[in-house]
Amino acid sequence: MKLTHRTRWGACLATAGLVIAGVTSGQPAFAVLSGSTFEGNDGNLVVNTAGNTDWANVAGRHTGIDQPTGSSDNSFGQGTKEDSSAVTVVSGSIPPNKNDLTRFYEASEQGSNSHIYLYLGWERLVNIGNANLDFEISQNPTAGFSSSTTGPVTLSRTAGDLLVTYDFGGSGTPTLGLNTWLTAAAGNTVSQCFSANALPCWGKHVTLNGTNSEGAVNTGTVSDPISGQSLGVGLFGEAAIDLTAAGVFSPGVCEAFGSAFVKSRSSSSFTAEIKDFIAPIGVSISNCGSITINKVTQNEPAPGTQSFTYTTSSNLSGFSLKNGDSKVFSPLSAGTYTVTEGTQSAPWNFVSLTCDQTSGVTITGQTVSIALGNGQTVTCTYTNHYTNSPTIATTLSASTVNLGGSVHDSATLTGATSNAGGTVTYTVYTNNTCSAGAQSAGTVTVTNGAVPDSNAVTFNTAGTYYWQAAYSGDANNNGATSACTSEQLVVSKAQPTVATAQDLIPNDNFTLSAGVSPTGSITFSLYAPSDASCAGTPALTQTVTVNGNGTYSTTNSTFHATTAGTWRWASSYSGDGNNQTASSACGVENFTINNG
User: Fold this and answer.
1) What confidence tens digit (pLDDT) does each residue in 372-413 have?
2) In DSSP terms, which residues pair with 466 in a beta bridge?
3) Contact by Cβ (8 Å): 509, 588
């Protein structure tokens, strides 16, 4: 496949003489192209120098295998030549021994110098001297036919497809060349055709040289570590080509090839008939980079339903992603690209943006800027989190209570995840804005969304109290607080009962008259209601000194008369030498306590 902005080659690349390091019998060469570690010039399929690669361990190796030799084998027929697009595939026609191919290998990589390298290998059934092969490298994922195809076939070719010519004369080193598929567009002329036929054709031929390619055919028996087969002299050949140095890949121009197949010519002449072939296989030869944006959501109630939008720089197109989606931009030429995720609003929030590369990658908030190099691939992942916004409802064990009573609170979360954790803090306040007189009713741990009750609180002061429960939230749930006025507790004043009883401090007066300068004493006696005759022991008695006629009084301040009924006084004067005794009768003075 290709990008529409690919720049096609201009004037024909200059032809240079072949300067390819070869392989002499018993003396392998281990040099590799600058920027590559692939040993493409020793013809032995295995690594000879530690740290290098060969077919035994090269990354991204692709293998094409021919139909078994015999009646089931197929080949091009009816004089098919390289410039032919309309060809015929025939079966049961055994190609000449030297042209009977058995398998081929392809691999490519970006070297340490950012150049794109192509590695090719082939095997044939019999060595009869020379070998003439062409590797067709197509931009299309398939060249239009498979190993089982027979009959007329139209090869799917696109302007800019490549043809690597591999001509081995039977000894020494192979001659490698490179042709491009030309159409009538872009100013191409018949003179540029390698075979001088009419357009379209393979043209702009370049003979590859020792600075941009190397190749070899085995000069001794080698073992193929992939197939496990032993290969005699001249049955295996390989090549390594620096496609960037050869002008196929230009800096800043994205070019990609998706399939490859090999065919054998009957002679070194480019116009010779095409004989055997090994059907196309998928390959990936490219200097194009790619950017992949992945989307991950956490705690999404219905994963994969929420869409997130992304804006980009002008060289990419905007897009949307859901959880588990990916957006791949490929192929991309070297350049700077930016991707920005749209601003999130509750209940969504941005968690992270990470990329698997650091070179040329700058992350600022929800924007990534990527200075993409040739062939570089960058994968970035946006992660967002869904946070539930639960509500919390509360219920008091009682809405009114007498002074000295106890009350506890209960809480329920609604809209939280089933595994909700965190804590709930219960508090009692003395005002309806929950800002004064705070008294803790405890903090409890929420387990799987269940909220334990608060501690019991005892109220010793009458008034109206306001309860509030505050949920802390957790990684998946926002916090929540109950309304201050949703729970009111009235603590009532105590209601006393009334019982009355008289409590008197009795005192008495005694007036003495008609005496002659009387002296002596007056004794006051108070009898309880149970002693109606004043015969028992007085409940209260007091004696005062007499000094002449007059009124004398008790001074009681400690004795209390509380028993209901009639209390009786009985008082008497003692007399003296000039005066007789005198007394008041029992009960002449009395008072009654009636408590109802």
Assistant:
1) 988 889 999 999 999 999 999 999 999 999 999 999 999 999
2) 429, 488
3) no
- Segment (H or E) for 353: strand 348-355
Cα dihedral 267/273/276/280 (nearest 10): 110
Contact by Cβ (8 Å): 89, 76? yes
Describe the strand order of the beta sheet including 326-332 as a list of residue ranges. Answer: 326-332, 289-298, 377-386, 348-355
Rounded distance between C-alpha atoms, residue 147 and residue 515, angstroms: 164
Per CATH, is 391-492 categorized as 1.20.120.530? no
The letter for the amino acid at 121 is G
Is-contact 400 313, C-beta < 8 A?
no
Q: How many residues in total does the chain contain?
A: 596
**Amino acid (one-letter) located at 106:** E
Instruction: Characterise 255 by phi-psi region: left (phi > 0), alpha (psi -120 to 50), beta (else).
Output: beta
Question: In this structure, how many other beta carbons lie within 10 angstroms of the beta carbon of residue 6?
Answer: 17
User: DSSP of 206-236, one letter per residue?
Assistant: EE--TTTEEEEE-SS-EE-TTT--EE-TTSE
Integer Cα distance of 332 and 371 in angstroms: 11
Residue 283, number of CB atoms within 10 A of its CB: 23
Pairing of the two strands 550-553 and 509-512: antiparallel
- Gyration radius of the chain over CA positions: 57
Count each helix (H run) and each strand (E run) in the chain, helices first: 0, 42
pLDDT tens across 463-481, in order? 999 999 999 999 999 999 9
Q: What is the DSSP string of 478-514?
A: --EE--GGG-EEEEEPP---------B----EEEE-S
pLDDT average, residue stretch 549-564 = 94
Nearest-angstrom CA–CA distance, 308 and 315? 20
Please tell me whether residue 132 adopts helix, strand or coil conformation. strand
Residue 522 · residue 547 · CB < 8 Å: no
Q: Considering the domain 289-386 in this protein, what is its CATH number?
A: 2.60.40.1140
Structure tokens at 398: 């009682």
pLDDT band for 185, please (50, 70, 90 cuts): confident
Q: For residue 433, give the DSSP letter.
A: T
Q: What percent of the chain clears pLDDT 90, i.e. is strictly above it?
A: 78
Residue 454: partners with Cβ closer than 8 Å, 6 or more residues away = 408, 409, 410, 411, 426, 441, 442, 444, 469
Residue of 133, 139, 109, 113 whose CA lies nearest to 121: 133
The C-alpha angle with vertex 457 and arms to 452 and 462, in degrees rounded to 5, equals: 145
Q: Which residue has the tokens 């200059």?
A: 14
**How far apart are the C-alpha atoms of 590 and 587, rounded to whole Å?**
5
Task: Give the pTM.
Answer: 0.60
